[in-house]
Description:
This protein has helices at residues 3-12, 27-30, 71-85, 99-115, 152-160, 162-166, 169-173, 183-187, 191-208, 232-247, 267-278, 288-294, 296-299, and strands at 58-64, 87-88, 91-95, 129-136, 142-148, 176-182, 216-222, 254-257. It is α/β, with parallel strands linked by helices. The protein has a single domain (56-297), classed as Rossmann fold (3-Layer(aba) Sandwich). It has an eight-stranded mixed β-sheet with strand order 2-3-4-5-1-6-7-8. The longest helix is centred in the middle third of the chain and has 18 residues, at 191-208. It is globular and about 45 Å long.
Amino acid sequence: xxxxxxxxxxxxxxxxxxxxxxxxxxxxxxxxxxxxxxxxxxxxxxxxxxxxxxxxxxxxxxxxxxxxxxxxxxxxxxxxxxxxxxxxxxxxxxxxxxxxxxxxxxxxxxxxxxxxxxxxxxxxxxxxxxxxxxxxxxxxxxxxxxxxxxxxxxxxxxxxxxxxxxxxxxxxxxxxxxxxxxxxxxxxxxxxxxxxxxxxxxxxxxxxxxxxxxxxxxxxxxxxxxxxxxxxxxxxxxxxxxxxxxxxxxxxxxxxxxxxxxxxxxxxxxxxxxxxxxxxxxxxxxxxxxxxxxxxxxxxxxxx
Length: 304
């Protein structure tokens, strides 16, 4: 097995990713060190996310949604767009500290396209922070975007157990929350279940402090193309109800409809990807007070 095959094995076979299980770290093949014991280049967690913060303060977007709503497909599609063109709109891709984490999600996305069905993508135990560094070609400013892609099962647990929610520091301290909802579920028979889950989750998040201070809150209705003509009236009614529910705990900055993220050329998706990068309005250098704020995982202070 060549080096490329070995790295591919690390991407596609999680069991090979632990030294305890006899596998090897990707640093064994690239010469790069691992991050706090994590497989080098894989997704990060609350304990090691600050290791990648350097001169470019990150903009952290927490993706919130229940199982099968498309969060990881969104992440994989974002990554696919970056790898295909090397840019998102005016933003040129420079680097990522978590390419393996993206590749793992993109691999499952490709397999889904082959078999025509959803595969489990983000285990509840998996690390979830993914980073991308870009340069604005108009201004030369560098922007770092960090996406938090926790499993949908985690948000179901948050609605049921306050103690689980208390462990999620990013939900409280990140400056951008993105609710990800399945439009076909909004329009169909699964709406009552979605409504019930949100009725449990939103008040807990509010009590926890997830909507405190100035925070950007967006709502994405994914898979709009799967809404049938005869469902459109119910969809619009239920969508309005969802936005009212979120609006009771936070001001919604933007609500966005997206068609299936599997579509290779999707202008609306690419525009929304660029919108997220436009949100990365950061200073050109880190000052001491900013760096202290960025150490939110350790100090529990707000991430800018």
